[in-house]
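4.2 Preliminary Data

To establish feasibility before requesting continued support, the project team ran the inverse folding procedure on a target of 248 residues. The structure was first converted into the token representation described in Section 3, and no sequence information of any kind was made available to the design step. The complete token record follows.
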């Protein structure tokens, strides 16, 4: 003989649970919009905090001009080392999302200087490819052809301006509730894109970012997945044209 469990008046039935879940997924649109507006505001506030934090860091770095331990390799043709961080500043841009004015992005710029002027010498047949790659890497340069006795170009010499321009762009996705961090020439001649949840970009993460900038640690690169070619979703808002009360 089977014994049934005693009836618990406080226990919700499966139907009750399904009803509550269904009602939760069909909230009035006004409440949904309010909830999304609050989430967007919290992400915006986080970005303002990040902006202020990085702005203070930039001032200290500008004063200290610290050494940077990274070595930047350009294929097997050149290595830039013994770097110094000499300039840094932070900028931002706002954008309207419906009735809200929110931060569109925060960007941290800085310049690394190295001693001397690196020189790359390549055969003339490779010059166009190397020039394109130097431009992609954001390196400024002067090039001069080397000619033989018959005035034919045999090689091209590239004299590199001894500086690396670096940017870190922090860009929110107010629809998917994510924040992208794009690193350009931070520890290599490359653009890397990482995607964080807002809670992941706390001050500990920002401290790891500064350690990455200085070449002291790569922990920041392990804090979130790399997502190449990530772009934030742009929300669409429908604007309703006012209707006249009067019939002409």
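Position-by-position output of the design step:
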């Amino acid at each position: 003989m089977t014994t049934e469990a005693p009836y618990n008046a406080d226990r919700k039935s499966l139907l009750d649970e399904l009803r509550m879940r269904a009602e939760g997924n069909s909230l009035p649109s006004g409440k949904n919009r309010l909830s999304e507006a609050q989430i967007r505001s919290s992400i915006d506030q986080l970005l303002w905090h990040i902006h202020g934090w990085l702005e203070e860091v930039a001032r200290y770095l500008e004063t200290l001009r610290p050494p940077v331990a990274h070595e930047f390799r350009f294929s097997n043709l050149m290595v830039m080392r013994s770097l110094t961080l000499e300039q840094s500043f932070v900028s931002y841009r706002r954008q309207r999302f419906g009735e809200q004015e929110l931060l569109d992005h925060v960007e941290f710029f800085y310049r690394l200087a190295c001693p001397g002027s690196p020189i790359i010498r390549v055969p003339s047949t490779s010059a166009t490819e190397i020039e394109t790659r130097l431009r992609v890497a954001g390196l400024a340069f002067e090039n001069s052809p080397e000619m033989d006795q018959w005035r034919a170009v045999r090689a091209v010499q590239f004299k590199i301006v001894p500086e690396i321009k670096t940017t870190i762009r922090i860009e929110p996705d107010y629809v998917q509730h994510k924040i992208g961090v794009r690193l350009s020439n931070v520890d290599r001649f490359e653009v890397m894109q990482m995607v964080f949840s807002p809670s992941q970009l706390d001050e500990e993460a920002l401290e790891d970012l500064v350690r990455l900038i200085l070449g002291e640690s790569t922990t920041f690169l392990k804090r979130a997945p790399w997502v190449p070619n990530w772009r934030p979703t742009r929300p669409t808002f429908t604007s309703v044209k006012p209707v006249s009360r009067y019939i002409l």
